[in-house]
C-alpha cells in the first residue's frame, strides 16, 4: 500500500510521500534489511520539509547504521542532531540515550553510564514509556559484564514497562535478557510466558496473512529453482574442464619424469570427472524428485481444497504451512551458506524456520560462543549438521520440544541438541545416511559428535570442536 501511494501521488504531496517512505523504511528494518531501510530514510529526508520529520528520520537512520555496526556513522548523525535545535524534550532525551549506547557498542571501555542514567531520569519525568523500554535495554546490556545483578534488575524493569504498554516484541526481548541472566530453574516461568506469547503472535500473523493472501502456485519460481540447479551443473562441468586442463599440463611434465606417473594422473582425472558429473546428476535428480513428489502433489491438493467452499480454512492454512516448510527444507539443503560476520543471524533464521506450533525450539547460550567469529568452514559444518538434525526431527522424531544449548570453555565449543521425540527404534544407533554425513562433516574440522539414543524418550546429540 505504501508503494501504491508513492505511485499515486507521484511527487505531488511531499509530506505524504515522506510518510510512505518512512513506512517502507520501518518495514525493511523490522525484517533486518537495514541497507534497504537506510535508502528509504535518505529518500524521505530529501523530500520532507518538516523539521520534526527530519529529526525523526535522521534518528531512525542512525539506528539503522547501528544495526549494521556502522558505529562511527551512527555516532556522527546523533551528534549532529544534538547540535541542532530539538524542541521536543522527549526526542532530545532519546537521542542522548541512543548516542551513549552506540558509543558503548563501539568501545565497551567508554564510560557512558552518566548519560544513560540522565536519559533514564528524564524519561521517567516525561513518562516516556517506550523510551524507557529502550533505555532499560541499554542499561541491562551495559551492566551485563560489569554487574550481573544490576543487568538483571534493568532487564526486569524493561519487562515490566513492556507489559504495561502491551508491547509484545519488547516483552519477548526483555524475557530473553532475563533468561540469559538467570539459572534455568529460575527462568522457567519466563520460558513458559515466552512460548505462550510467541504462539499468540504466530496465530495472529497466520490469520492476517491468510486474510489478505491470494493462493497461487508460482510456476515462475519453480522454473527459477530448476534453472539455478542447471547453472550449478554447468558450473561443475566448467570446473571439471578447468581441472582437466591443469592436469594435462602436469601430465606433459610427468612424461619426462616417469611414464607410470602419467598413467596414474590420467586415471585419477577420469575417475574424478566421472564422480563429479555423477554427483551433479544425482543432485539434479534428487531435487527434481522432491519438487514433484513433495511439493507438486501437495500444491495440487491444496488448490483443489481452495475451490471447495466446504473445506475448513484452518485445514488449508495447515496445508500451506506444510508446503512452506517443505520448500524451506529443500532450500536449506541445497542453497549456498552465508558465512562471515552475519552467520549467527543466518543460523537463527534456520532455527526459526523449524520452530512451529507442533514443535517448540528453545535456544540457550548462542550469543556466548560468538558464531560470527568462527572460520567459514566451521560455520558451514555447524549449519549443515543442525539442518540434518532438524530435518530428522521434522520427518521422524515426533518431538514437541527441542532444546539447543551452547557453551564455550577456553577454546572448546560444546553444542548440545536434545529433543523429546521417539528416538530410534533400536538402542544402538545405526550410522548411515544423514547421521553418517554428520560424522563425516565434524571430522573435517577435527571435532567429535556423540549420539545418545533413548527409544521412546528422545535423542541427545553432543558436538565438540575447537573455536
Layout of helices and strands:
Elements: H1 2-9, H2 14-30, H3 34-47, H4 51-67, H5 71-83, H6 89-106, H7 113-126, H8 129-142, H9 148-164, H10 168-180, H11 184-212, H12 219-257, H13 259-306, H14 313-334, H15 343-354, E1 360-364, H16 376-397, E2 401-409, E3 412-419, H17 434-443, E4 448-454, E5 458-466
Parallel strand pairs: 1-2
Antiparallel strand pairs: 2-3, 3-5, 4-5
What does this structure look like?
The chain has 467 residues and is α+β, with helices and mostly antiparallel strands. Helices cover 70% and strands 8% of the residues. It is built from 17 helices and five strands. The chain has helices spanning 2-9, 14-30, 34-47, 51-67, 71-83, 89-106, 113-126, 129-142, 148-164, 168-180, 184-212, 219-257, 259-306, 313-334, 343-354, 376-397, 434-443, and strands at 360-364, 401-409, 412-419, 448-454, 458-466. Strands 1-2-3-5-4 form a five-stranded mixed beta sheet, covered by helices on one side. The longest helix is centred in the middle third of the chain and has 48 residues, at 259-306. The model is unreliable at 213-219 (pLDDT under 50).
Give the overall silhouette: globular
Structural class: alpha+beta
| Record field, number of beta strands | 5
Q: How are the strands of the biggest sheet laid out side by side?
A: 1-2-3-5-4
Number of helices: 17
- What is the residue-mean pLDDT, rounded to a whole number? 82
Low-confidence stretches: 213-219
* C-alpha Rg (nearest Å): 27 Å
Order of helices and strands: HHHHHHHHHHHHHHHEHEEHEE
Strand content: 5-15%
- Please give the oligomerization state of what you see: single chain
Amino acid at each position: 500500500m505504501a508503494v501504491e501511494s508513492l505511485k499515486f501521488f507521484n511527487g505531488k504531496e511531499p509530506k505524504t510521500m515522506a510518510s510512505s517512505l518512512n513506512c517502507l523504511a520501518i518495514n525493511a528494518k523490522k525484517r533486518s534489511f537495514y541497507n534497504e531501510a537506510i535508502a528509504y530514510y535518505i529518500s524521505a529526508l530529501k523530500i520532507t520539509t518538516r523539521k520534526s520529520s527530519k529529526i525523526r528520520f535522521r534518528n531512525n537512520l542512525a539506528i539503522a547504521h547501528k544495526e549494521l555496526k556502522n558505529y562511527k556513522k551512527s555516532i556522527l548523525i546523533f551528534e549532529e542532531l544534538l547540535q541542532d535545535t530539538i524542541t521536543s524534550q522527549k526526542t532530545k532525551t532519546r537521542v542522548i540515550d541512543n548516542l551513549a549506547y552506540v558509543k558503548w557498542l563501539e568501545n565497551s571501555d567508554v564510560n557512558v553510564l552518566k548519560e544513560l542514567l540522565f536519559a533514564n531520569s528524564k524519561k521517567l519525568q516525561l513518562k516516556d514509556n517506550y523510551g524507557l523500554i529502550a533505555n532499560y535495554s541499554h542499561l541491562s546490556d551495559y551492566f551485563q559484564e560489569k554487574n550481573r545483578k544490576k543487568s538483571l534488575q534493568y532487564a526486569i524493569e524493561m519487562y515490566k514497562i513492556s507489559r504495561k504498554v502491551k508491547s509484545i516484541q519488547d516483552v519477548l526481548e526483555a524475557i530473553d535478557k532475563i533468561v540469559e541472566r538467570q539459572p534455568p530453574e529460575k527462568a522457567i516461568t519466563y520460558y513458559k510466558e515466552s512460548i505462550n506469547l510467541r504462539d499468540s503472535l504466530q496465530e495472529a500473523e497466520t490469520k492476517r496473512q491468510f486474510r489478505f493472501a491470494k493462493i497461487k502456485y508460482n510456476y515462475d519460481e519453480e522454473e527459477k529453482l530448476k534453472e539455478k540447479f542447471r547453472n550449478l551443473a554447468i558450473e561443475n562441468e566448467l570446473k571439471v574442464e578447468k581441472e582437466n586442463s591443469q592436469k594435462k599440463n602436469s601430465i606433459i611434465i610427468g612424461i619426462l619424469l616417469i611414464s607410470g606417473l602419467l598413467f596414474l594422473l590420467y586415471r585419477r582425472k577420469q575417475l574424478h570427472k566421472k564422480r563429479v558429473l555423477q554427483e551433479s546428476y544425482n543432485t539434479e535428480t534428487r531435487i527434481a524428485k522432491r519438487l514433484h513428489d513433495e511439493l507438486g502433489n501437495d500444491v495440487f491438493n491444496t488448490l483443489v481444497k481452495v475451490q471447495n467452499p466446504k473445506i475448513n480454512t484452518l485445514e488449508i492454512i495447515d496445508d500451506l504451512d506444510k508446503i512452506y516448510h517443505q520448500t524451506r527444507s529443500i532450500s536449506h539443503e541445497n542453497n549456498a551458506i552465508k558465512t562471515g560476520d552475519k552467520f549467527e543471524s543466518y543460523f537463527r533464521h534456520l532455527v526459526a524456520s523449524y520452530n512451529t506450533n507442533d514443535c517448540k525450539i528453545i535456544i540457550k547460550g548462542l550469543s556466548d560462543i560468538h558464531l560470527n567469529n568462527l572460520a567459514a568452514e566451521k560455520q558451514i559444518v555447524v549449519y549443515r549438521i543442525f539442518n540434518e538434525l532438524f530435518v530428522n526431527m521434522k520427518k521422524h522424531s515426533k518431538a514437541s520440544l527441542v532444546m539447543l544449548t551452547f557453551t564455550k570453555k577456553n577454546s572448546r565449543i560444546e553444542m548440545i541438541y536434545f529433543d523429546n521425540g521417539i528416538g530410534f527404534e533400536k538402542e544402538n544407533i545405526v550410522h548411515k545416511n544423514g547421521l553418517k554425513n554428520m560424522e563425516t562433516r565434524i571430522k573435517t574440522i577435527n571435532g567429535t559428535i556423540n549420539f545418545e539414543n533413548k527409544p521412546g524418550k528422545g535423542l541427545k546429540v553432543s558436538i565438540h570442536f575447537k573455536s
